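Severity: low
Component: inverse-folding endpoint
Summary: output formatting inconsistent between runs
Steps to reproduce: submit the following structure tokens with default settings.
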């Protein structure tokens, strides 16, 4: 598959990285790199440290040791989306208003809100208060945020959580297209995610005994 490089070609490189919570190390001295058109899947048991690693790479938690760097971006460029396992939906705003809010916060550099909602299968619910969405519909709305603001690096925590089989296909399609565009992503997942081109995928298994 050809990478079209619609994004600046980034590389995220971790060197001897250790991460953890509350003084407890959850990963130690790990090195990896992910570059434009590629992805890294984080796998492992509950409590294994996947979310903590994503939060660390998002700059929300400080590493315990080692370092990581994102090469290929301007100093002040906002290059990443962090999509946590909570959907961060405002229940009193409509579905479309939620998306418009995030487009304003993150920059309306991607698809128009209505097109993004159509893409994730929520176009018919645009005017519904988002608090009424089902679990899977809420997840779809969270994923639509990735589409309204173009950013090359996606850090995703359980992107397929609560989704039906068509939703799983949607996620595969969005992720594959993102890599086609020269984006990259790191995703923590308990579900299998299989992209058409397996050469693009690496897996980091964590939380295992040495
Ligand atoms: N603020 C905190 N203080 C102390 N420990 C914490 C804190 N937040 C999370 N933890 C612990 O850190 C460990 C790793 O949690 P994390 O959410 O990174 O795991 P995970 O691999 O994403 O798990 P899951 O598959 O269940 O989502 C867990 O044991 C959790 O209880």
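Observed output (run 2 of 3):
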């Amino acid at each position: 598959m050809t990478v079209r490089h619609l994004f600046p070609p980034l590389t995220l490189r971790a060197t001897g990285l250790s991460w953890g919570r509350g003084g407890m190390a959850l990963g130690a001295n790990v090195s990896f790199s992910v570059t434009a058109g590629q992805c890294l899947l984080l796998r492992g048991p509950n409590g294994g440290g996947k979310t903590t690693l994503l939060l660390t790479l998002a700059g929300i938690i400080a590493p315990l040791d080692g370092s990581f760097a994102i090469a290929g971006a301007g100093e002040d460029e906002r290059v990443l989306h962090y999509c946590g396992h909570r959907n961060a939906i405002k229940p009193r705003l409509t579905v479309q208003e939620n998306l418009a809010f995030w487009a304003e916060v993150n920059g309306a550099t991607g698809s128009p809100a209505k097109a993004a909602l159509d893409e994730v299968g929520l176009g018919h619910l645009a005017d519904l208060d988002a608090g009424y969405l089902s679990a899977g519909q809420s997840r779809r709305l969270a994923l639509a945020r990735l589409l309204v603001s173009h950013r090359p690096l996606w850090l995703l925590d359980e992107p397929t959580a609560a989704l039906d089989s068509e939703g799983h296909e949607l996620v595969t399609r969005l992720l594959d297209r993102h890599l086609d565009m020269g984006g990259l992503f790191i995703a923590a997942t308990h579900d299998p995610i299989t992209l058409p081109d397996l050469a693009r995928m690496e897996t980091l298994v964590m939380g295992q005994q040495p």
